Amino acid sequence: MAYIELKGATLDLPIYDVQGRSLKKQVLRMGRRNTIAEDSEGVIVVRALNNVDLRFEAGDRIGLIGRNGAGKSTLLRTMAGIYTPTLGSVESEGKIVPLLDISLGMDDNSTGMQNIRLRGLLLGMTDAEIKEKTQSIVEFCELGDYLDLPLRTYSSGMRVRLAFAVSTAVDAEILLLDEVMGVGDASFMHKAQERLHDLHSRAEIVVLAMHANSEIRRVCNKALWMDGGCVRAFGPVEEVVAAYEAQVG
């Protein structure tokens, strides 16, 4: 059974371009709730996560809520292995698929078809899996002959369509999603929503961050309220979302 567990996970992100004693003092005074500090080597760091203890198990559909800068995206990236905790640990069982930057790994000078392979490999797919899924990706993105042209000739909407089609073709046991992106006109948006719903239903664990509390209530059974890099509340979705809304107005 899939699971992901954080034990005392703390993440300090260094700010290397802060030079001079007076500037350091100014930056340190800006810190809220001890989120900005100076480490033992004199480097200014932002404490992006602070002593996070969490365990997600099969069947969990977790909605991350909190103000901008609360630590939602950082938490997702830490669970995905993009960030390594400064202190504590992250343990998991099951294939993690992070849909955080869906265009990562795509190359402007390669064709759409070549980028299907590049993005697929980055997501952990084998060549055999990519070959098996290519036709369905081609049909879903609806880009036709453009797939034989370099990515640099694509509009921003076409790029997102291709990236979305590849990213959502992978089979995930643990799905991490940071905001649902716009992917084109109304008809394609409907297809994209259906595809995301199918992806959610097949994953054992889903953790997603978004600002639409109504969508959190609709698709999640639990909510995690992040505040200043700390867990403010974690529990049944309605209970936590209602508490958050009462706090922020």
TrEMBL record:
UniProt keyword Cell membrane, yes or no: yes
GO cellular component: membrane
Keywords, ordered alphabetically: ATP-binding, Cell inner membrane, Cell membrane, Membrane, Nucleotide-binding, Transport
UniProt-listed Pfam families: ABC_tran
Record-annotated ABC transporter domain positions: 18-248
GO molecular function terms noted in the UniProt entry: ABC-type transporter activity; ATP binding; ATP hydrolysis activity
Family: Belongs to the ABC transporter superfamily.
Name recorded for this polypeptide: ATP-binding cassette domain-containing protein
Organism for this UniProt entry: Paraburkholderia acidisoli
